[in-house]
Amino acid sequence: MILPTVLEVGRPLEFETLPDPIRRPAARPAGFDPAHAWRLGWLAAVCLAAAATLFTDAGGWPVWAALGAGAVPALVALFMTREDERSQSIMLVLWAVGGALAAVLTGGVSGAMAAWCLAPVAAASILNQPRRLAEGAALALIGGCVAALTQLSGLAPPEPTGPLGFVLGFLALVTTGLGLAAGLLIGRRRQGARDDRYASEIVGLETLLDGLPHLAIAIKGQGQVTAVRGAPPPGVTTVDLVNRGLTGAAAPGDRQRLTAAVALAHREGSASLTFNPALGVERIVALDLVRVAPNQLVGVLRDVTVDRNRETALDQARADAEALASGRARFLANMSHELRTPLNAIMGFSDIMRARMFGPLSDRYAEYAELIHESGGHLLDLINDVLDMSKIEAERFELQRGIFDAREAVQAAMRLLRVQADGAGVQLRGVLPPAELEVDADRRALKQIVLNLVSNALKFTPRGGQVTVTAHGYDGVLELIVADTGVGISPEDLERLGRPYEQAGGAEQRARGTGLGLSLVRAFAKLHGGEMTIESRLGAGTSVSVRLPVLLAPLRSVTIEAKPEPAVEAPTTEEPPPPLLGDNIIAFAPR
Hints:
By secondary structure, the chain is of the alpha+beta class. The chain is 52% helix and 16% strand. The chain contains 16 helices and 15 strands. The protein is elongated and about 160 Å long. Residues 1-30, 555-584 and 587-591 have low confidence and may be disordered.
């Protein structure tokens, strides 16, 4: 792993090597292995010394024991398969014991094979690890001390003399020297491999840094730029950065802010800001600083003019859209209010004409008055929907909560839609529990929910069909379900329904509304903390459920079954009397 320490313009990069967080076991290099060759050479030298001993008369058991003690570590090292830290430590101890024993058996520290006391140093040098080298030196010192004490105490056998002494001494010096030379060779080979690897990594890193789309800089002190790499942003030159410092590359009005950001990065560890460059005040440059060492920062300069202009344009577009939406809401509210004033007069005068308060009217004029009153009522409903949606979108709609029986609001809404159901030829049924449904809610909003859902159901249910309104409570939740046997809703339309001004069905159904009915239902439900769900299949009808957590007293489960009697005909009077609250089923059949 390598990291750049200096990135100066026109100068080569300098790197320092950081220790790898994970140390892997040393692997034997492929091809010629000096360590393996040294061990083989050690054994070959021992064999030659043993052959020379056979042709001399001075040899005895101490010499043969010394040669055996020196040969054992080399044999074990040749056949050792693992070279982890523990195995290496054991091998160094074995080299120390073998070398010290050979020196003791051949006369001690002044004997023929005293050089073998340095065997652990030679073995450690082959491993090319400073820690192992220190360990080998310590073991060699211990072995030498043992050999010296043995010699001084007179326990060591006599030193071989003559040709045998020369052969053994030469053997000890050559094998130990070759071990040290092999360690030096291995170290140079490994260092060369590391240098080659680092050189290739440096070249790759230089290519990467030079290809950066932004400018990387190194900063020392309070703004002195010591290195730059990458592409400078417009309005900034690398020459100015190096010669004039970081603050010199900024416009005069931003230099104090830049100095404060550098001080903050030294103090807190990081800092960011945007400024105008001295050579392009119309541009915007962003600077991110990070402290990497005491009095040393690194940073990245990048041009953010396009991004900032885009953000400014988006903010302006958002502000314009919000202003437009707010203006539309105010316009709709004002227009709705202004339209309702003359509309109330139209409906009032037409109602007077329908009642013939000032004299009789011909049948045709009476029919026209009826149509005027009906159209005015429809227009008033549309205006009320637009006004409510405008208030909800402007977050100005406030619920007028109160405690009441939810069945009364449901029945009142159904009575208002009785005439529309009769005209459409659809049976309108209400399934209500016998006990009270006491809720804490907005009476008008609850009534409007039922009106909108039933009105939609009647619009999409053909003549002879049925619309059922069910109200019941459980666990503090009031659930209203409006189900019809109409044409159903396609999956494409189902995804859009519930959003303002979205409609489903054909052109005939779309022309009979504003697309605010379901969106108002969803909005009213959300204002009460509830939700609305729609289930529908083409040709199989639609079911809309509204769940409101407004029930004051949870009800016990009551199973209500529809009686098999025929539906009760609605009274022929203009306004039918309200059904008793204890009734389970309320039915309005078409006349």
